[in-house]
Amino acid sequence: MTSMTNPPTKCFNCSQKTDNTLYGFYVCKPCEEKIGLMSKETIQQHVDKNKDFKKEAQAKLAVLEKDYARKKIKLLHIIHQTSSPQ
Ligand SMILES: [Zn+2]
After folding, report:
1. Burial call 55-77: b when 16+ CB within 10 Å, e when fewer
2. How far apart are CA 37 and CA 46, in angstroms?
3. CA-CA to 57 of 20 to 30 Å: which in 40, 72, 81, 86?
């Protein structure tokens, strides 16, 4: 083993070093527990009651990602507009 592996990366939420990842996000175990992920059983109960449960989650994610991009562009624009030399 060499030390050439990727350096430890920081939890997106608390910036603590972690190599735990979930869906592309670095997230430490304490923060993962606070997210409140549904158990497999709970998800299955939702699916049993609502056959479109997964499809609805995908639609919510698409809305959230568009909202995230819109807000990020807006903030980056402010930063860009205020970062010119004084
Ligand atoms: Zn954390």
Report:
1. eeeeeeeeeeeeeeeeeeeeeee
2. 14
3. 72
Torsion of CA 52, 56, 57, 63, to 10 degrees: 170
32, 24 Cβ separation under 8 angstroms: no
For 36, the token pair is 């409140």
Which amino acid does the sequence have at 37?
A: L
85 CA to centre of ligand 1 in angstroms: 36
Q: What is the mean pLDDT of the chain?
A: 92
Q: Is the pTM of this model over 0.90?
A: no
Which DSSP state fits 6?
P
How many A from CA of 45 to the centre of ligand 1?
Answer: 29
